[in-house]
Amino acid sequence: MRAGEIPRLAGYDPTADADALRRALDEAGCCVLERLVDESVMAAIADELHAHRAAASVGASDFEGHRTRRTGAPLPRSATFRSIAMHPAIMAAGDHVLGHATTWRFSAAEYIEIGPGESAQRLHRDAWKYDMVDFPCEVELNGMWAVTEFVAANGATRVVPGSHRWPHDARPDPSSTVAAEMPAGSLFVYTGSVFHGGGANDSDGRRAGLSLQHAVGWLTQSTNQFLECPPAEVTDWSDDLLRFIGYAKTGNGLGYWRDSEDPLAAVHPEREFATGWATVRPS
Ligand SMILES: O=C(O)CCC(=O)C(=O)O
Ligand SMILES: [Fe+2]
């Protein structure tokens, strides 16, 4: 791993690559996992989401991009996305970066298409969304699936490897970024404290990616999962996925509902769940 470069793994083998992934996240705050899934998986997700893109937001702000289309809610809209939302590489990265919290969970995902002529997004830390609090720990583990190939010319995410260790008031120079270039089906994972931003698209094609956010269980999720994935519409989803998107208690007295009930009981009223909100984590 060289300073200033994005560490890379050829896919992710949980036995052989776990240490290298953890080292990459510690030292660079990011890693590219090349060809983690077949391109056809990405194509299937794009197909499922394209049905919704006509209504999606374009150019809502400078930050969101005036030539960038953002289609939300891939979890309820794409069964294929649901099948990779808990990919072992994501779980390993999240456990490493956010394992200090009682639980960490899915926060949001967005299908981002950067169109020709788009300029570079302002460099930022994703964790700034939390009122720019200077947290003493990592609070987010995020990612970007390459739906199309990502190259510098078409707007591959720009990143400053190692900037997760910079002080709170440090700001990068755009010339210090490198492009997270990767073939379709690859995943770029990065912590909420790494400076990055969407790249300028100087090509004549679209750059499509699926942006992922995950956060510790004690922070608000970016998108409201209980509105996007309401109980009556998720009865056939796995418990693991439901827990992962927020149907779970966490911390010491967070996430319960009504009479100290387990939120999963809202999806499955026919099943028995333990009640009580105190101390999920053994002391
Ligand atoms: O589109 C990209 O490459 C990055 C987008 C991003 O960082 C964001 O919207 O927070
Ligand atoms: Fe970002």
Structure characterization notes:
With 283 residues, the chain is α+β, with helices and mostly antiparallel strands. The protein has two domains: 216 residues, Jelly Rolls (Sandwich), CATH 2.60.120.620; 42 residues, no CATH class. 22% of the residues lie in helices and 18% in strands. It contains eight helices and eleven strands. An eight-stranded mixed β-sheet has the order 1-2-9-6-11-5-4-3. It has a three-stranded antiparallel β-sheet with strand order 8-7-10, with no helix packed on it. It is globular, with a radius of gyration of 19 Å. Bound molecules: 2-oxoglutaric acid and fe (ii) ion (FE2).
CATH class of the largest domain: Mainly Beta
Mean pLDDT: 96
Radius of gyration: 19 Å
Helix content: 10-25%
- Secondary-structure element pattern, one letter each: EHEHEEHHHEEEEEEEHHH
What is the name of the CATH superfamily of the largest domain? Answer: q2cbj1_9rhob like domain
Poorly predicted spans = none
- Count of DSSP strands: 11
Q: What is the structural class?
A: alpha+beta
Shape: globular
Q: What about the largest sheet?
A: 8 strands, mixed
Number of helices: 8
At the fold tier of CATH, the topology name of the largest domain is: Jelly Rolls
- Strand ordering within the main sheet: 1-2-9-6-11-5-4-3
**Fraction in beta strands:** 15-25%
Count of domain modules: 2
| Overall CATH architecture of the largest domain | Sandwich
